Amino acid sequence: MTTTHEFQQTGTAVLDAPAVYLDAVAKTYRSRAGDVPALRGVTHAFERASFTAVMGPSGSGKSTMLQVSAGLDRPTSGRVFVAGTDLHSLGENALTKLRRGSMGFVFQSYNLLDALTAHDNVALPLRLAGRRVPAQAVRDVLGRVGLADKAARRPAELSGGQQQRVAIARALLTRPAVLFADEPTGALDRSTGRDVLELLREVTDDQGQTVVMVTHDPLAASYAHEVVFLDDGVIVGALRGADAGRIATRMSELER
Questions:
Q1: Strands, DSSP E only, in 60-132?
Q2: Among the listed residues 207, 193, 201, the one whose alpha carbon sits nearest the alpha carbon of residue 241
Q3: What is the C-alpha separation between 174 and 138, in angstroms, rounded?
């Protein structure tokens, strides 16, 4: 695993760095009732062209881990690197620019605008950033998610699974270093959810995309190359190539 020391001392090229590297990351939320630690010194590398599921009991820190990894929240201590870039060194404007270019996001809610076509929903974030979006690039990415013939349709004319595919296409448009997915199949039925998970696995295996997905569903996690388990803010284990049964058993052990 590439280390922070190597990033800093050898000037490791971005292409050689993990997609995301957490170095002793801690996050504590402060409230009137006292400090609540969500992450406790997490060190982990999400390697390039990997599909990783992050699981854990409620309150284990998995959502905080995703938010800190994506620069949506700042750690209390430790550092986060995305494609070799130290997020700690960036101001808010630079961090926003990095997220737009190097990260993609897919959530349980599709976050599509009803008045726009699939094509325009995919292009919208870059247009809002003032960047020119070649129409062919949008058509290509819609083709990658199996919606080449749905570019002119609006969300109301698409199924839930198709809407989530539009959201994935939007996230893939900039060819991000990492795609973060937070419960991406939570609003879908089981069959449609499988289609979306197969797509995420496909863009990893066939196109080298890195995917980090938070989920509570062992079946969803079984599509990942690796499942990382969090409990009480620390990583307590991982499984590679595990089926849903093994993952569910590990989760039940953590929830006892």
A1: 77-82, 85-86, 103-107
A2: 201
A3: 10
